[in-house]
């Protein structure tokens, strides 16, 4: 039996928590936060939605398989370490875009790496949570 209060609350909290997770992702270079914490907040948002509505509803809004999100995250993180070679720099050196963007700020290979960590953590945790709830139901 699912609570109407939980359902109503999660409908409003899911987008807010996802926005907050992206904020944590981009804030993580100079302050606490980053890809790991942002990915955990995003997976917690989907987990909360899962508790309110069930696994089928979450799968309908999160259409990508979590293992594919995990693979994409690993690809981003790995490619960010190789990218500096194309600029004649050593492996795993930070390469930055020279202009600051209005909302995000400085972008570079550490941002790509953090985004890869974000998607990796999101994919791993959702894969675990979906597997646990599918076995339960």
Explained architecture:
Helix content is about 70%, strand content about 0%. The mean pLDDT is about 90. The protein is built from five helices and no strands. It is an all-alpha fold and about 140 residues long. α1 packs antiparallel against α2, α2 packs across α3 and α4 runs antiparallel to α5.
Task: List the secondary-structure elements in sequence, H or E.
Answer: HHHHH
Nearest-angstrom radius of gyration? 17 Å
Q: Structurally, how many domains make up the residues?
A: 1
Oligomer: single chain
How would a crystallographer describe the biggest sheet?
Answer: none
Let me know the number of strands. 0
State the low-pLDDT regions, or none. none
What is the helical fraction, as a range of percent? 55-70%
For this entry, give a set of tags.
mainly alpha, 0% strand, 69% helix, 137 residues, 5 helices, elongated
Write the layout of secondary structure elements.
Elements: H1 4-27, H2 35-53, H3 55-61, H4 66-82, H5 109-136
Helix pairs in contact: 1-2, 2-3, 2-5, 4-5
Please give a quick description of this structure.
With 137 residues, this protein is mainly alpha-helical. Helix content is 69%, strand content 0%. The chain has one domain.
């Amino acid at each position: 039996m699912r609570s109407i209060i939980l359902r109503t609350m999660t409908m409003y909290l899911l987008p807010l928590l996802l926005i907050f997770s992206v904020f944590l992702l981009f804030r993580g270079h100079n302050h606490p936060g980053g890809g790991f914490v942002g990915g955990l907040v995003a997976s917690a948002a989907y987990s909360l939605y899962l508790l309110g509505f069930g696994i089928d509803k979450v799968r309908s809004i999160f259409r990508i398989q979590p293992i594919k999100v995990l693979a994409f995250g690993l690809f981003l993180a790995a490619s960010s370490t190789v990218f500096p070679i194309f600029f004649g720099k050593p492996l795993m050196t930070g390469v930055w875009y020279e202009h600051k963007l209005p909302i995000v700020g400085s972008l570079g290979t550490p941002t790509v790496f953090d985004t890869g960590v974000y998607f990796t953590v999101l994919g791993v945790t959702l894969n675990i949570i979906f597997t646990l709830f599918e076995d339960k139901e």
